[in-house]
């Protein structure tokens, strides 16, 4: 048994695949401690041929499978997971690449902390990457109060024993958000989450041809992924503050963008359809605790959605931003002070 199985699902990945594989070959952890399981998902650009050429020449034990296109990243990842034999697995997208010390640092953290999931610092190349969770190394991150809940992509180190024991797989029926569902389940059911923040482990590459998978998908798929994630959270967290803290993620990252400035450019029919799709989610999971944890403008927009008022939503989107120097909280405090000065008897209540 090796330490890490690097699972690479590849579709039309040339020429990015070259650097991806070179980055695995260059890992300081050593070729004898890792294996590569690569799945060519029906490529026609030479991806499969390059994988086979690499496997024949590499010192790293490499297994290549070629299959008909599955329609999404979940299928190839599941195939790779079924063949993996490492203590840990790492899902590496064929467009991206690793820092040289990535696997050594991630495995060392997992072994030291005893956690089942380890996040490594991510840097975007020609695209944006999440930044809020990389302030410091953490052996045990609180998934409720920390920002790790905002990074639910699959490019992390997972303890394979956890995935096998829970029979975890990516949902191949989903065309977007399947990695968020998988990762959140590992967060919720695993033995803790660690963060390696002092070294860039993963380079997230924006393709020049614009074919990156996360750019695709209609708005209806986004609502479906939000619903699935909310249902998962609700299944593992009873109502209360801890659930609200996790619900921020699907509301802020998946649902809120559907009711941003984009609706001003879309038809009334689409906006009303979005309102219909959002209604059961707002009824089931929108709480005062979730609302309190959002910024003022974001909370205002989702309150319009919760009330089923597209007219008010548009007004909110068109309203000018409040001056940056005067926060919402400060305006409330000033209003209360004016009340106290005008009505001394209200001082205690205020």
Explain what the structure shows.
The chain has 350 residues and is an alpha/beta fold. Helices cover 43% and strands 16% of the residues. It is built from 13 helices and nine strands. Strands 1, 2, 3, 4, 5, 6, 7, 8 and 9 form a nine-stranded mixed sheet that branches. The chain is globular and about 80 Å long. The C terminus is likely disordered.
Helical stretch tally: 13
Per DSSP E runs of 2 or more residues, the count of β-strands stands at 9
The proportion of residues forming helix, as a percent range, comes to: 40-55%
β-strand amount: 15-25%
Element order: H for helix, E for strand: EHEHEHEEHEEEHHEHHHHHHH
Weakly predicted, low-confidence segments: 346-350
General form: globular
Alpha carbon gap, first and last residue: 65 Å
Overall pLDDT confidence: 92
**Describe the biggest sheet?**
9 strands, mixed
Over the alpha carbons, how many angstroms does the gyration radius reach? 23 Å
What class would the helix/strand composition place it in?
Answer: alpha/beta
Question: Quick gist of this model?
Answer:
The protein has 350 residues and is of the alpha/beta class.
Topology summary:
Elements: E1 4-10, H1 16-25, E2 34-41, H2 47-57, E3 61-67, H3 74-83, E4 88-91, E5 97-98, H4 102-113, E6 117-125, E7 138-141, E8 157-159, H5 160-165, H6 178-189, E9 193-205, H7 219-236, H8 241-255, H9 268-285, H10 288-292, H11 296-306, H12 310-318, H13 328-342
Parallel strand pairs: 1-2, 1-4, 2-3, 6-9
Antiparallel strand pairs: 4-8, 5-9, 6-8, 7-9
Helix pairs in contact: 6-7, 7-8, 7-9, 11-12
């Amino acid at each position: 048994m090796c330490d890490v199985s690097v699972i690479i699902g590849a579709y039309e990945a040339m020429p990015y695949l070259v650097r991806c594989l070179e980055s695995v070959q260059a890992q300081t952890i050593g070729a004898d401690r890792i294996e590569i399981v690569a799945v060519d998902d029906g490529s026609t650009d030479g991806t499969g041929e390059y994988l086979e050429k690499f496997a024949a020449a590499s010192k790293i034990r490499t297994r290549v499978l070629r299959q008909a296109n599955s329609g999404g990243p979940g299928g190839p990842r599941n195939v790779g997971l079924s063949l993996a034999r490492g203590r840990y697995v790492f899902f590496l997208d064929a467009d991206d690449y690793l820092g040289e010390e990535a696997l050594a640092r991630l495995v060392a953290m997992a072994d030291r902390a005893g956690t089942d999931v380890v996040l490594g610092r991510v840097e975007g190349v020609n695209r944006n990457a999440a930044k809020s969770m990389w302030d410091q190394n953490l052996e045990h991150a609180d998934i409720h109060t920390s920002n790790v809940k905002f990074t639910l992509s699959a490019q992390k180190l997972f303890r394979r024993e956890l995935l096998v024991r829970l029979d975890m797989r990516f949902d191949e029926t989903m065309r977007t958000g399947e990695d968020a569902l998988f990762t959140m389940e590992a967060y919720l059911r695993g033995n803790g989450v660690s963060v390696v923040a002092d070294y860039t482990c993963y380079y997230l590459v924006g393709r020049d041809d614009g074919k990156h998978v996360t750019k695709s998908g209609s708005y209806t798929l986004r609502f479906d992924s939000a619903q699935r994630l909310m249902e998962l959270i609700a299944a593992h967290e009873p109502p209360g503050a801890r659930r609200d803290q996790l619900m921020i993620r699907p509301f802020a990252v998946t649902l809120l963008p559907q009711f941003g400035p984009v609706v001003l450019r879309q038809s009334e029919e689409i906006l009303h359809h979005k309102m219909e799709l959002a209604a059961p989610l707002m009824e089931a999971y929108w709480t005062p605790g979730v609302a309190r944890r959002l910024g003022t403008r974001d909370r205002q927009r989702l309150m319009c959605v919760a009330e089923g008022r597209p007219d008010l939503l548009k007004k909110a989107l068109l309203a000018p931003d409040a001056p940056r120097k005067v926060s919402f909280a400060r305006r409330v405090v000033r209003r209360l002070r004016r009340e106290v000065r005008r009505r001394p008897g209200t001082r205690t209540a205020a």
